[in-house]
Design goal:
CATH topology of the largest domain: OB fold (Dihydrolipoamide Acetyltransferase, E2P)
Strand content: 35-45%
Shape: elongated
Radius of gyration: 26 Å
Order of helices and strands: EEEEEEEEEEEEEEEHEHHEE
Number of strands: 18
Distance between the termini: 76 Å
């Protein structure tokens, strides 16, 4: 069976003036056209050809010897070529672009953006793209705890954290407890692997180890205090969302850093505020 959206080896069934027809095996009724400009010189019936099968502008199956950036069931970073009323069209490295419908976008994309997307076959038996790539990313990364990695944030969840495609292909998560809104979908992040789950998914942190991060957070808060007249109009008992919004760090990180600054005699906490000494 000829597989839409897959790279496969087919054989030349017969020749025509405008190309050759390919089939899975000799005598099959199901055939697909490989245009003449892509047929190698001297090719004859029975010869095997490796091709990718997709649909042309008239919705007919067509083969190409050119290699696409992705196939059905895989994900890749693609450039947005055009945004239309039905969705965005992505450059997948072939003459025909790949449709990314609006309902498959996890955030609004614009012409020229690069997005991570996976290819699937829609209900109309056409190839399409989705930015909901969680299930398409590999769980077989070469990384272990304490390795440093780079990844693309593709989705942010208030409950779970930030979903990241490490090396643009491995499944990873910055858990909510480690994520304070420092990045948004489409951003690249540099992170540290904090663990590898049994299924192979990576847990990440974009924070440094505690003893290194403490000084960095303390310096950050000192700068903020100076910029705000020497005080925060709240204490370390404030709502986590307020601290996250104002200081871009978790409540636990905030409390640790403030405690460190207090020990150094740099700040003090009153009933209603934190202020420089």
């Amino acid at each position: 069976m000829i597989q839409l959206g897959k790279i496969q080896k087919l054989q030349i069934e017969r020749k025509a003036d405008f190309g050759v027809y390919l089939s899975e095996k000799k005598g099959d009724e199901e055939v697909v056209l490989l245009p003449k400009k892509q047929v190698r010189e001297g090719a004859e019936p029975g010869d095997e050809v490796e091709v990718f099968v997709y649909r042309d502008s008239k919705d007919r199956l067509i083969a190409t010897v050119n290699e696409p950036a992705l196939t059905v069931g895989t994900a890749a970073v693609l450039k947005v070529k055009q945004v239309t009323k039905i969705g965005a069209f992505l450059d997948m490295g072939l003459e025909r672009d790949l449709l990314l419908p609006y309902h498959e976008q996890t955030y609004t994309v614009h012409e020229g953006d690069e997005v991570i997307a996976a290819m699937y076959i829609d209900k109309s038996s056409r190839l399409a793209a989705t930015m909901k790539v969680y299930e398409y990313l590999s769980k077989e990364s070469p990384y272990k705890a304490e390795d440093e990695v780079d990844g693309l944030v593709y989705e942010v969840s208030r409950n779970f954290g930030a979903f990241v495609a490490v090396d643009r292909k491995y499944s990873a998560l910055i858990p909510a407890r480690e994520f304070s809104g420092e990045a948004k979908p489409g951003d690249m992040v540099h992170a540290r692997v904090t663990g590898v789950k049994e299924d192979g998914k990576l847990d990440l942190s974009i924070r440094k180890k505690a003893y290194l991060q403490l000084n960095e957070d303390g310096e950050k808060l000192m700068e903020m205090l100076k910029e705000r007249g020497g005080k925060f109009p709240f204490t370390d008992k404030a709502d986590p969302e307020l601290i996250k919004s104002e200081c871009k760090m978790s409540k636990n990180a905030f409390k640790r850093a403030i405690g460190h600054l207090m020990k150094q005699g740099l700040v003090e906490i009153t009933a209603s505020e934190i202020k420089l000494k």
